[in-house]
Design a protein that fits this description.
The protein has 358 residues and is an alpha/beta fold. The chain is 46% helix and 15% strand. Helix 7 links the parallel strand 4 and strand 5. Helix 2 packs antiparallel against helix 4.
Length: 358
């Protein structure tokens, strides 16, 4: 039984690693020829290698031994060297062809930090990557998906083939050291199945790196609560977003065009989150006054994020305070109440580029 198991194991290894198996066989054959030279010429290992090495490098030379077996061994070394080089060349050629067929490099693991990881892939992936590169060309971006081939040929993107629901594959993508993670829905599945997979990925990511900012696509707004419990930082409900935009466009013609322009990073104005320290001019200024001041600089202020408190709820009791995940922060858009901007607030603005200071 042990012999059968060993034979089966070696057979499996040969089938799965044909090139390596051939190289091992050639190495064994070469060692055998060296052993023949040592035995019949009565020389040490060093001298035997000197006799066999020229043949292994492709030069037969003049065999110095009168022994027929030694001469045959040296000639065998020549054939071994030719076979060895043939296998190595074939392996390199095969790797190159596979590299080209897959559209570029597919890494097994990354060694990055503060990078962005995209988990999963769908037809929106190309546009998302384009926008990310337009917004920050120097940002390291890793795509982790089940595709065997690279989903896009751009070599600025590092691609890892794997399952985003598995911790081992997430670690290969460097999720434990990532700054942000985008989780894309599998649009080939039904809403509940796709959202269940997105939930599994979110749980895995949050377990490995609680500090990473996770943005998750879900197909059904009904599943939003599950992602909130999994501590997803931002949840984009495709059904809710699409339906609301259609209604807004029907009631206010042209809204979709304006929103598309603001969400595109390669031209015109865009949405930005400004979380640098506020200048002394803006700090303590009422929101409406700050809007007027910034408009003169070509910046439109439309909202802010701040720490939640009972005092804030009283000041803005007529406004909607959007809680941000499980953080003690809220987002307010175009407040009705009189709110004075504070140091530590993040401002949401529209501008042609991110301002250096406000």
């Amino acid at each position: 039984m042990n012999v059968k198991r060993t034979v089966r194991r070696w057979g499996t290894f040969i089938v799965n690693h044909p090139a390596l198996s051939v190289l091992v066989l050639l190495a064994v054959a070469y060692v055998f020829t060296i052993g023949v030279i040592m035995h019949y010429d009565q020389v040490g290992l060093g001298r035997a290698l000197i006799k066999g090495l020229p043949a292994f490098l492709g030069e037969l030379g003049e065999p110095e031994s009168g022994s027929t077996l030694v001469q045959a061994s040296i000639i065998a070394s020549l054939f071994i060297s030719l076979a060895f080089l043939t296998v190595i060349t074939a392996a390199i050629t095969t790797s190159f062809v596979e590299f080209c067929r897959k559209g570029g490099r597919v890494l097994s693991k990354v060694n990055l930090s503060n990078h962005l990881v995209v988990c999963g892939w769908n037809f929106q992936g190309h546009k998302i990557i384009h926008e990310l590169l337009s917004a920050d060309p120097d940002k390291d971006i890793v795509v982790l998906a089940k595709n065997e081939h690279r989903p896009l040929p751009d070599e600025r993107i590092i691609y890892i083939s794997g399952d985003p629901t598995q911790d081992s594959d997430l670690l290969r993508a460097g999720v434990d050291h990532a700054e942000s993670v985008i989780i894309l829905s599998d649009l080939t599945k039904g809403a509940n199945d796709a959202d269940a997979e997105a939930l599994m990925i979110t749980l895995a990511v949050e377990t490995l790196n609680r500090a990473a900012y996770t943005s998750v696509q879900v197909l059904s707004a009904a599943n939003r609560v599950h992602l909130e419990r999994a501590h997803a930082d931002e949840i984009i409900c495709l059904d809710q977003m699409g339906g609301s935009l259609v209604v807004a466009s029907a009631l206010n013609h042209g809204v979709s065009y304006a929103l598309t322009e603001l969400l595109t990073f390669d031209f015109g104005s865009e949405f930005y989150r400004y979380d640098k320290p506020l200048s002394h001019q803006i700090e303590g200024m009422e929101f409406r006054e700050a809007v007027k001041t910034l408009v003169a600089k070509g910046i439109i202020l439309f909202g802010f994020e701040t720490d939640v408190s009972d005092q804030l709820k009283e000041e803005l009791k007529e406004d909607i305070l959007q809680a941000r995940g499980d953080a003690d922060r809220v987002i307010v858009v175009n407040p009705v109440g009189n709110y004075k901007l504070r140091q530590g607030d993040a401002l949401f603005i529209i501008a042609e580029e991110m301002p250096e200071a406000i």
